[in-house]
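quick one before i forget lol
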Amino acid sequence: MSQFIKSIEHNNHMNHLLRVTPILVFFMGIQYLIMKNVFPQESLGNYFVFLALSLSCLICGFTVYDSYHRLLLFKDFVIIRSPYSFSAYKLDIRDLKNIHNLSGDNNFGTVVFVLKDERKFSCYFVDYPEEVKIFIQNLIIIHKSEKQLQDAA
C-alpha cells in the first residue's frame, strides 16, 4: 500500500456558497416581484415555488458534491471519489501526462488530470488549485527521479 499524503477538500467553495446564497435568495424575490408587477392578473404562486425548488436543488447539489467529492493524494497514485457517479478513479502517477489548473490562482477552482492515453479527469471546486497542481507535478518529478535511480542501479 502506498503512503497516504493528503486529502484535498472543498471548504473554500462551501464558504463561498454560504456567502452567496442570501444574495441568490434576494434576487429570486426581486424576480418574483418584477413578474408580479408585469403580470398582475396571473397567479404566480407556481412560478415562485418553481424558482424556490430550483434554487434549493442547486444549493443541495453543490453541498452534496462538496461534502462527498474527494481528491486523495498518495505517493504513487491519486484517487478521485465522485458522489454523482458512485465510483472512484485511481490514477497512477506514472500514467499522468499533465495537470491543468483552469481557474488561475483562486481560492477554489478546477484541476484537470491528463493521462498519457489522453483521457481527462476533472475535479471541480478544489481548494487552492494552483498549489494542488504544483504539488502533484512535484510528485511526478520525484516519482520519475526514483525510477531513473532504480533503472541506473
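fyi The helical segments are 11-38, 45-68, 129-152.
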